[in-house]
Amino acid sequence: MKVMTSREFNQDVSLAKRAARLAPVWITDRGTPTHVLLSIEAFQRLSGARETIVDLLAMRDDDTAPLDLSADRAAWTGPR
Predict the structure, then answer these.
(1) What are phi and psi of 63, to 5 degrees?
(2) Number of domains within the chain
(3) Which of 16, 20, 58, 61 is the most exposed place for a label (fewest CB within 10 A)?
(4) 8: closest CA among 30, 27, 36, 34?
(5) Quick check: is 65 in a domain?
(6) How far apart (Å, rounded) are the C-alpha atoms in residues 43 and 33?
(7) Is 80 a domain residue?
(8) Largest alpha-carbon pair distance within the chain?
(9) Closest CA to 5 of 39, 23, 31, 24
(10) What distance, in Å, lies between the first and last C-alpha atoms of the chain?
């Protein structure tokens, strides 16, 4: 288990994320633990959560691609 101060966490989030792959990272504020950073795999193990098809579809990388509906436009407007 790694412990980071809030300041350390804010200065190097990437380090915290890398450490969380191995073990939970405790984040402290003025010496008091306030948050815990976990990998998604660790969280799913703890919560018993399972991925559904909806989760998998929501995680697609190409969600920001523009949607081209020009080919379907005729179906919506009908004959002219």
Answers:
(1) -65, -20
(2) 1
(3) 61
(4) 27
(5) no
(6) 18
(7) no
(8) 72
(9) 31
(10) 68
Is 71 part of any domain? Answer: no
The average pLDDT across 1-28 equals 96
Adjacent-strand bridge partners of 60 = none
Q: Quick check: helix, strand or coil at residue 2? A: strand
Contacts of 16 (CB under 8 A, 6+ apart): 2, 4, 8, 9, 25, 27, 37
Q: What is the CATH number of the domain that holds 20?
A: 3.40.1620.10
Region 70-80: mean pLDDT is: 58
0.90 surpassed by pTM: no
Print burial letters for 26-58: b (CB count within 10 Å at least 16), e (below 16).
Answer: ebbeeeeeeeebbbeebeeeeeeeeeeeeeeee
79 in a structural domain: no
pLDDT at 15: 96
